[in-house]
User: Fold this.
Amino acid sequence: MNAPASQAVLAPTVKLLINGQLVESKTTQWRNVVNPATQEVLARVPFATPEEINLAVSSAKEAFKTWKKTPIGTRARIFLKLQQLIRENMKELAAILTAEQGKTLPDAEGDVFRGLEVVEHAANIGTLQLGELANNVANGVDTYTLNQPLGVCAGITPFNFPAMIPLWMFPMAIATGNTFVLKPSEQDPMVTMRLCELALEAGVPPGVLNVIHGGEDAVNAICDHPDIKAISFVGSTKVGTHVYNRASLNGKRVQCMMGAKNHAIVLPDANKEQSLNALAGAAFGAAGQRCMALSVVVLVGEARNWIPELVAKAKTLKVSGGTEAGTDVGPVVSCAALSRVESLIERGIADGAKLELDGRKPQVAGYEKGNFVGPTIFSGVKPGMSVYDQEIFGPVLCIAEAADIDEAIAFINANPNGNGTAIFTQSGAAARKFQEEIDVGQVGINVPIPVPVPLFSFTGSRASKLGDLGPYGKQVVMFYTQTKTVTARWFDDSTTSHGVNTTISL
Ligand code: NAD
Assistant:
């Protein structure tokens, strides 16, 4: 957005994917995709017209007629091929991701890899989508279930994991027999598009996977479209709540994974070196732009004396462009994100939190125009301060203190969010107490970012989630299918007829 107009005009356009074709949008509304480390305009992304959105949905609806009947093995084999293509193209995917999103190259590979794991899981769809059968529920009667696809499903994704989160969605939806319309983040749609191209190369038939681009209008069109049966959303709490309400009112199945404020408890018996390393990595990695970033640490008892060492660790992290070797903290995604983070730091100071480490306006040689903010640490943070109440989504760690584990657990449970949390301790009893009493959907025990692998599902809770089933894993198979329960009796010629029966029995 900040680049000279001439640069923008020369930039390539991001295509829509409709009915198996990559097509140029006819829209008049475009947005620049900008490298956050340099402000270079990488591409221009269209805001699809209502006609183009309708075309994407109608091609998905048409494709569903045959895709839903495509054999399990055929569907699964496409995802076996896709996982191979993603592995072969890992470096290219990571490079695109780093250029448009900013995270470091190794972290970008991690982003792709965590999505790849879902693709691998989708390739096993036959065993995941099995129904159940009960033999002889009455005389000569069996009951069994079919887990059938819903139809056209849609996904709306955020900027912070432009590979992993689209891969949470379309592989599982398509593998279970649905067709899909994806609306990636307009801030960094390029790696998502490359993954969709690989999906076509892997054999996803025309119309089964479609991509439209845009912002609010495109999202509202998805919420309102009568032919879309289910929506998976990942993004902020404000937008997710809107999507949940609007799409639910339209009778759709909706799941929304939303904002967070993830707390870690550090008990004084924790392994100090390991815990401080984990905290610094989880707070400042990806420039704090992870929904599972640890943004609040509650130091219990004597652990409150560890602040200087935590600050010292944070100071060792290298802030630079994501393509530079050894970079720990890349830029935040946009100029707007940078000014938001900086203004929240100012609010933190004004609210009376103690600024232990100020990461504002770092000197980053070679990347003078980048959206950088270095690791920042506040201590003495309390509810009521903006830095505590809001999700900062930048490399800012807030430190609070508690006298004991009970006080620390009560502190976390009083926060409305429930995405992730962690405890650092050597005590099994303390860890088990935490696991039992904490009201947060994803819990780490000496694990700072406990994102479940796809054998499980992502299980954020409370204000971080709307809808009852999670993305990927077993839960999403239920989300993307309708259970049909069949109760069957077969007569043979020897079956004695007992005449008309007007009771409810089988
Ligand atoms: P966002 O809510 O701004 O955008 C998400 C999607 O909604 C994008 O596709 C965007 O185009 C669309 N959108 C934006 N504004 C809209 C509006 N007014 N009306 C309708 N649609 C709109 O989120 P973001 O900034 O891209 O991502 C960061 C947020 O996502 C953070 O809050 C983070 O915690 C959250 N997140 C949550 C999870 C999770 O699993 N819980 C995972 C990743 C990110």
Observations:
- The two ends are 67 Å apart (CA to CA).
